[in-house]
Structures are given as structure tokens and as C-alpha cells.
Fold this sequence. Notes:
By secondary structure, chain A is α/β, with parallel strands linked by helices. Helices cover 34% and strands 25% of the residues of chain A. Chain A has a single domain, classed as 3-Layer(aba) Sandwich (Rossmann fold). Chain B is mainly α. Chain B has helices at residues 3-31, 36-41, 47-57, 63-75, 89-124, 129-143, 146-160, 185-191, 195-232, 235-242, 247-283, 289-298, 302-330. In chain B, α5 (89-124) packs antiparallel against α6 (129-143), α6 packs across α9 (195-232) and α7 (146-160) crosses α9 (195-232). The chains are: A alpha/beta, B mainly alpha.
Amino acid sequence: MSLLEVENLHTHFITRDLGNRIRVATALNGVSFAVGEGEVVGIVGETGAGKSLTAMSVIGLLPPAAKVVAGTARFAGDDLLAMSPATLNRLRGDQITLIVQSPKTSLDPLKRIGDQLVRIQKAHRAVSDDEARRNAVEMLATVGIPDPEQRARAWPHELSGGMAQRVLIAMALVNGPRLLIADEPTTGLDVTVQAQILDLLMELVQARRLAAMIITHDLGIVAHYCHRMAVMFAGRIVEQGKVADIFKRPAHPYTKALIASTPKQIAARGYAKVGGLPPNLYALPSGCHYRDRCPEAEAACTTEPPLVTVRDGQRALCHVVARGTRVQ
Amino acid sequence: MTLRQFLLRRVLLVIPILFGITFITFMLVRVGDRDPVAMLAGPLADRQTLATLRTEMGLDRSFWEQFAIYVGKLIQLDFGKSWESNNPVIVDIANRLPASLELLLIAMLIGAAVGIPVGLRSAQRPNGAFDQAARFVSLLGFSVPTYWFALMGIFIFFFKLGWAPPPMGRIGLDAIPPPDVTGSYFIDSLLVADWSAVHSSGTRLVLPVLIFSVIVAAPIIKHTRAIALEVLSSDYIRYARASGLSPFTVRRIALRNAFTPVLTFVASELTGLLAAVSLLEFIFAWGGMGQWGLNAILNSDFAAVQGYVLTLALFSAVIYVMVDIAVLMLEPRSALKA
């Protein structure tokens, strides 16, 4: 059994238009994946594909208009989606922690960073002030903040983006979590700092044998740091499997196009292969959501695509792939 | 920068502002087509009397000469004399300011005590039933003129229902005004335990204070709601939830972060209200500084108008300096703590 098992997750945005008619955006349309103990899973896809929404659905932090309408998300066997808000709140920040993409604005502006590290510990377990403070300073040292004793007294606005992200990593690790969710952890950072932060983060994840979910649209990050990956398009995972397998032999046309769009490939070929707009979530096409942009689309693609096992652990959601392999 | 340096700089900055306001007021009161000499002398005065009076009042001199004399006296804290009352302006203001402040500060306390919680509650569920109702009340307080509220209040609660005492002053004829301590009849009569004066002045406070509270609360509701909405949708609140902090702690973080902007807003609103209260004082014959200032404007009582405007400006300046100090103490991002 994996640590986190998400099964058939459907999340909708339910809003009203100007005429007060109800509009439904089907943002997640049956997302299933798993993260094993000590496994690092990358989730990639274009903006609006539902990467962050998947994570937010799982940890119960959806914006008011969004609702999980179907599915389960089992964490160590317990369904997170069926839990009381208070029970789920006890897991958040303790067993499951989050690293966000806007570290500077995510820290409480009116509390010193050491105090924030103390606060998150005391919220989840009985720990003395002295011990919590020792842990905080130790954690700051672990994430590579120089002079941690002194820096614990710093205010969030005094930190650089990279320092603030280190503090968020410290916040995410100080309670000894089992699952770490990093939602575009380096998007807001300077390019030179990005690699340092990711190296630090993944080093700590590996040293502690944590399970991690890395949400990104940077395939390079996935190739470097992840064991397995899932490719999302319009609220579905269109392909998932071992990183090495997918990069070597992508099956789904969208994955192929994505991999063909890395700067190196584009430079070699002279043009980009992924084109077009994300589909309208208020009126998704029937069958395969990618068919309007797919160079290999055929008549069968207007019906629901089958989930095909390409090879051990690599699965794609596609008619075209199905013709070449056995249907699961 | 130390606190003392900051304060010194801040206070020094007030001086040019006050000077500018003095100049503008001085100019504006003289632009009107009303001649204070003619008004003071009455319709029967002859040419000779008018000329003598004009020289006595110093109005025959050039504008710049008059201004120089005025500023020269102002530096010695001499605000001149009111032509109406023949009292030094500063004495008239000192007599009347407490009555205005009594009305203003009580209404401000009620307005903030009601407006801030209502605004916060509104923001918790935007467009919910409570929010809709609060926004309607706020809009009403914004858009209905003060005098209409006052007249309707008097019509209903004094004339029709007879619950409120007559809208004529701060204390009834049957009660003796208490000895002056704070300047508020209500508090002063409490201090000497004169219960008939307490009752008389207290009941007279109710209607104008309530009406003014509505005017005060309307913008507080609107701004508190906007500030709270912004804080609640901030990254740090989202992150606090993701950190599994208790709902109580999350709310405390939100309140703490909304506190400074709300305080700044309420205080800056206060600066405008000392002028806004004048209409209400007029209708309730309150005898406060606002009513006196309005009269001075209507009578072209130059020194009194200038004294009135300068007092308003000084009041604003003092409040702004106080807000700055408060923000400095509350905000880690402020220059003093860096």
C-alpha cells in the first residue's frame, strides 16, 4: 500500500454567471495516482491542467467556489476527503506539509521567523518553549541559514527570496512529516538560487526518506529529482510512470509534444511542438480532452479514451496508444 | 533613526503645513463679497462710522500688511479677537471645543465598537445575508445627508414619540451645569454626583450621538470589510491554514495583521469628523465649536474663521502624528526597528 493513494478525484468550480445561472468548471476529471513511502513523484502539465488543484483538493484547502464532487484520497489508509476538518487540520503542517511558491508573502509579516517555527511545532504537539526553540534554530541551520541563532530573530521582510524559501523548507520539515508537497517551489526565485534550493530540498527529502509530490511545469526538475511522474492535461492524468521510461519512450501524444518542447529539442528542430490553448473547462470536448490539439487524433477519440498499460508501471490514457498495445 | 529624531522631524513638518493653511484661509475669507464692517455696523451706519470702524478693525490696510500682522501675532499664540463676541478667539474655542469633542468622541467610540466587528463579520462570508445587510446600512450612512437623519430623528423621537428631550442644547433649563472639569457636562455631573444634571445631559446626548454614530460607522464598516477581505485572501493566511494552525490562531493572525490598517483608517476618519459634526451641533443647538465656526463663516468673523480652521488643522496634525507613532510601535517593517 502506498502512503498516498488518490483515486478517481473529481473537483468542480461551481460559480454563478452574470445572469445568476450556475456555471460548472470541471477542473479535475478523475485523477488517480499514488505516492509510495520515500518516493518522489513529479506532477507536470501546463497552467490550468489541475496540478495545484489536485494538491489542494487532497489537503482540503480549496477556494470557496471549488468542491470535491467524487473520489478518495487515502493517506496511510485514511480517506482525507472524508475526514472532519479538525482531523485534517491536525495532519496539515505535521504529517503532510506544504512548500509554496511565494515564500516571502506566505510568512506571517508580524512574527519573527524563529517564533513562527515555534508556533507550528506547538500547534501539533506538546513541546516545551525551550525545546521548540532549540528545534527551530537547529532546523534553520539544517536548511543552510548562516548564523541561525541570530537569524531566528529576523522578520520575514528582512529575508531574500531564497532565504525565505529556506525558512519555508524548515517550517515544512520541523515537525517530521511523512509527505511533503512542493507546489512550484522555485517559481518565484532567481535562476541561480533555484538549483541551490532544489538541491537542498531533495537532499533533505532523501536523507529523511520522505515521500514527496513536486508540482512543476519544469521537465528538467522532474528529470533531475523525481522517481516517477504524472503528466496532467485538462484535469486528467494522461500518462504516468517511471521518469526514465517516460523520458525515453513517451506514449501519449501530449507527453511526446511536451518532451519535444524542451529548449534543447526546440533548438535542434527549430520550432515548438506544443501549440494551442488549454481546453475550455466549462465545456470540455467529449472523449479525449486533448483531441483538438492532438496531431494523431482519429475518429475514435470522441469516445472516452482507455487507460493503457504501455509497460510495467507506465500507463497512458489514449486510443492511439491502445491500438498499439493491449488494453488494460 | 531614533524615536526622538523621528518625532522632531514629524513635528517640524507640521509647521509649513499649518502656515500654508493659515495663508489659504486668510485669503479665502477675504474673497467673499460680504463686508464685515457693514455687517458689524448695521444697516443704519453712515459713511464716517464705517470708515472709522474699518480703520479700527485694520481692514483698510493692504492684504499683505494684514497677513503679516496676523502671522506675527499668531507666533505669540494670539489668535485675535472675534468681532461677534468680542472675546479672544482662543477663549471662545476653549469654551466650545469640549462640547464638540464630547459628541465626537462618544460617537467615534460607538461607531468603531460597532463598525469594526460588523466589517470583520461581513468579510467572513462575502455576499452572505449578514454582509448584504451590513453593506446596505453602510451605504445608507454614506448617502443620506446628516441633517436629514437629524431632522427625522428629532421629528420621530422628540415630536412624535416624545422619548427624546427637546433638541436645544446640552443640558435642560431645570438642571444646573456642573463645575467645569473635563468640559463634558455628562462626565462632570457624574463627577459631582449631581444626578438630575447627569440625567438631563445624558438624555440630551443620546439622539445626536446615535445619529452621528451611524455617520461614523458607515465608512468604518466599508473599510474594515475591505481590509479584512484582503488579509483573509493573503498568502500568509492560506499558508497558516496549510500549516494546520487552529482556526483560532489563524483568526488571531488575521486580526493582528488587519489591526494597523484599520487603526490608520479610523484615526484618519476622525480628523474629518470634527468639521462634519458642525451641522449636527447646529441642528441640536449644541453650542460646540463646529456650530460656532459655522456662525463665524456666516458672519464673516475673520479671526474666528481662521481660528476655527487652524484648530481643525491642528487637530488633524496631532492625530496624524499619533497614528504615525502607533504604527511605528506596531509594525516590525517600520524604519525604527530595522
